[in-house]
Description:
Bound molecules: S-adenosylmethionine
Largest sheet: 7 strands, mixed
Low-confidence stretches: none
Number of strands: 7
Strand order of the largest sheet: 3-2-1-4-5-7-6
Amino acid sequence: MKNVELRFIREMFDQIAPRYDLLNRLLSCRQDVYWRRMMVSEIKVPAGGLLLDVACGTGDVAIEIIRQKGSSVKVCGIDFSTSMLMLARDKIRDMHDGSNIHLLSGNALNLPFKAETFDALTIAFGIRNIVDKLSALQVFYRTLTTGGMVLVLELAFPEKGLLPAFYHFYFRKILPLIGALFSKNLIAYQYLPCSVESFPDPYSFAAIMRKAGFQDIRWKKLALGIAVLYVGYKKKP
Ligand SMILES: C[S@@+](CC[C@H](N)C(=O)[O-])C[C@H]1O[C@@H](n2cnc3c(N)ncnc32)[C@H](O)[C@@H]1O
């Protein structure tokens, strides 16, 4: 069952890859750019630090890390969609300090790295697509050095005021239409609201992070709760 889910997700991202960036900017009114920037600004790593961006997609987080932290850090981006990775590769080739980013193909649930390798690990809009979130977080925990931090950026449903009703309407009716129009893939943009709706609330997700071993977990709601940034640390047990 898990392999079927993984294949469905991978093929879906392979199909929507050419229009992925355009649709992200369009559907979020460019907020996605700001949210990634926010996440990266929270990262604390030493000079010469090593970072891993899981589910790196078209490379926006990795590029933002180098933009903010400079080329004294190195970033590894991993994703299982070849089409998303190819677009990331094209963007990174155009950067003057792109050699600080290394891309590789792989599954978040089976990261090909030794334990205690990375000073920080990021995942933006990726964990929602992974059914077994606890296993993924346990794998992330293992690859981090002691003292290392994990940052998870994810979409969410706003809870208060009139926004939930509007958001439901936008997510259920408008977004799939725009998505289908531009990407020619209605299923992907019907799947998006379902995956956001079924994502645990911040307290429950923080509990999963804690179960995976992370400590000092905090979260910050962005844009009235449309996105949430979670931060946690690997500390001495
Ligand atoms: C919504 S995109 C996010 C991409 C990027 N992080 C961003 O900020 O735009 C989700 C990405 O997660 C990748 N992905 C989903 N499940 C994965 C898994 N189990 N292993 C590796 N990559 C995965 C998809 O291929 C896709 O590129």
